[in-house]
Amino acid sequence: MTLKMAASLRRLHHIAFHVRNGDKLTNDLVNKYKFNLFAERLTSKARQVALKNGLAVFVVNERLNLAFLDKKGQVNTLLNEQVHDHRGFETFDYKNIRFEHEPEFLYDVCQSYAVNTACNVSFEVNDVEGSSKRLRNQGCDILVPPTKVQDRCGYVTYSVVKSIVGNVSHTLIDRTNYDGDFLPGFCKINNAGNNVRSVAVGNSCDISHFDHITYACPQQCTPEILEWYERMFGFERFLMSRDEDVDEGYVITGDSIGLRLTAMQFWKCSEVGLKLPSHNKKQQNCKFVVAESLPQQERNQVDTFLEQHHGPGIQHVGLYTPDIISTARTMEEAGVEFVSPPPAYYTEVGKQKEILEAGHDPQLLSQQGILLDAEVENETPQVRSQDQTTNKKKHLLQVFTKPLFSEDTFFLEVIERRGASGFGEGNIRALWRSVQAYMECQKQKQAADETKVVKMQV
Ligand SMILES: O=C(O)C(=O)Cc1ccc(O)cc1
Ligand SMILES: [Fe+2]
User: Fold this and answer.
1) Which residue, 1, 70, 119, 290, has fewest beta-carbon neighbours within 10 Å?
2) Where does the VOC domain lie (predicted)?
3) Cβ(423) to ligand 1 under 6 A?
């Protein structure tokens, strides 16, 4: 009976990328998104860097090939000794836990993925061994068995399991016996020259945490994914909107959009049988959104992701900010490119009124491409117990970046919630249209470039 239990997750620890050019992504995250580069692991085979803004932590993994044969034919590396000293972990057996010696990537799997990708979501758990055992008994693929890593600040145990979604894996980490800044094997990076969190007053770029992670999946895969996350990690369904059908998900159609969204979430300390009292539900955790396109569609952003990413995976991550105007402004000034909603979005009478009622300036939102949706009081069942004393409308503000890599795949979103815990249909439609317009523009550019090449050849 106990062996069939789900693994209980404490909190999301980090999201990891595997990319060809780690410097490019790291520099963008530091300079444009104002993340703070705070820890690094460097070996002859891999570079792993950790960046944070608030509780949102990204790890950028890049495979290196710094090993070479010296004149005597011996394998050597371009790294200096100091780097090796910092790795400081040993190899021995203890209570059936395997102590790895120099894996290529720590806290991750050695992915040889064809394109740049965000593909690992790491969770903190209390009991890595027990959780891994339970997951294996449920049929989950264990990619890295429970492994202990230590340095002078203590030790952590981790395992990596394969998700049912494309190339996504989940690392489970117990860091209760660790006192360092990030994880053993990483060394702290001096913050000089890096970003400090707040810039000038009114110009801050503070992200507090990951709001949601959105998966792009093939048509009709959603039920299987929901079932898997429920069985493996005890995830619960989260209704995104009042208009959502529990069986069908949140289906948005018409006006060249055909999208099915379904969301789920886990609760902190989601021990099976131990449900949080409803007043605690305010402490909601990162949600997981599953997006699939509907049949009979023209080329669309979900299918384009699947094609260019070579399969399902993480399409975007929502970064929560308490002040989207300031965060979007700071990012834009630093060079972040956001997709633009159709100009008519901000001049439409109903939307203008909604924006003004929310205390915002339509022109300002328009300049930054920020979308605003109003949520009627008590619109989603999950928020019924909150804010009963206020009678104000709840709002959701979002802005979406252009893809971060050369492929039309992964992008980031900045989101501010003013009481609204769901997802607004107006915003989703506007986002869909913005991305479609961007893709169309890219296609035309590409066609123009190809014509140029042909002309030059002639
Ligand atoms: O609205 C959001 O933030 C979502 O995450 C929903 C969503 C998912 C996938 C899309 O291609 C467009 C919108
Ligand atoms: Fe989103």
Assistant:
1) 1
2) 209-368
3) yes
**In CATH terms, is domain 209-443 a member of 3.40.630.10?**
no
Looking at ligand 1, which atom is closest to the CA of residue 427? 1
Nearest alpha carbon to residue 217 among 318, 307, 295, 313: 313
Q: Is 253 exposed, middle or buried (0-12, 13-18, 19+ CB in 10 A)?
A: exposed
> What CATH number is given for 2-188 in this structure?
3.10.180.10
Q: What angle do CA 11, 314, 214 make, to 5 degrees?
A: 70
Ligand 1 center to 133 CA (angstroms): 34
pLDDT at 102 over 90: no
Residue 24 burial by Cβ neighbours in a 10 Å radius (0-12, 13-18, 19+): middle
What is the position in ligand 1's atom list of the atom closest to the CA of 300?
Answer: 11
Known binding-site residues equal 212, 316, 413
Which residue's CA lies nearest to atom 1 of ligand 1? 428
Beta bridge partners of 76: 68
Give pLDDT, residue 2: 47
Residue with CA closest to ligand 1 atom 9: 291
Is the minimum distance from the CB of 371 to ligand 1 under 6 angstroms?
no
pLDDT tens for each residue of 256-269: 789 999 999 987 55
DSSP 3-state of 50: strand
Where are the chain's structural domains?
A: 2-188, 209-443
Output the pLDDT for position 5.
Answer: 81
Q: Quick one: what percent of the chain has pLDDT higher than 70?
A: 79
This prediction has a pTM of: 0.87
Ligand 1, atom 2, residue with closest C-alpha: 428
Q: How far is the CA of 214 from the centre of ligand 2 (A)?
A: 6
Q: Which residues, 6+ apart, have CB-to-CB distance to 415 below 8 Å?
A: 211, 212, 318, 319, 320, 321, 324, 396, 397, 398
Separation of 364 CA from ligand 1 center, angstroms? 23
Which pLDDT score, from 0 to 100, does residue 4 have? 62
ipTM: 0.98
**pLDDT reading at 89 higher than 50:** no
